[in-house]
Design a protein that fits this description.
- There is one protein chain.
- By secondary structure, the chain is α+β, with helices and mostly antiparallel strands.
- It is elongated, with a radius of gyration of 20 Å.
- It contains two helices and five strands.
- Strands 4-3-5 form a three-stranded antiparallel sheet, covered by helices on one side. Strands 1-2 form a two-stranded antiparallel ribbon.
- It is 26% helix and 25% strand.
Amino acid sequence: MFPEHCSFVINKEKCLLPPEFIMEINDDKNNKFMVGLTCSGHKQKLEEKFLLLQRNKQIPQGEIVFTAIKVITTKCVTGNQEDKDEIQLKRL
């Protein structure tokens, strides 16, 4: 499970938009480090912030990669009578 909101914070105010990208750092040893989630509106600003953190050696060096988040939904089975009836109908 991912957080519901973008990782961007400015003046102690969090972005309330849902994340659209996973931000990772790929180092030269082929290790990946997830560093945050971002909406499309803050993607550039967060990349600039992480490049600065890399220059200051506060986070690992490497390529910053953005991967689009794919939303997957499922229908929850709660075990109520409607679910039982649906299962029976599909078995017949």
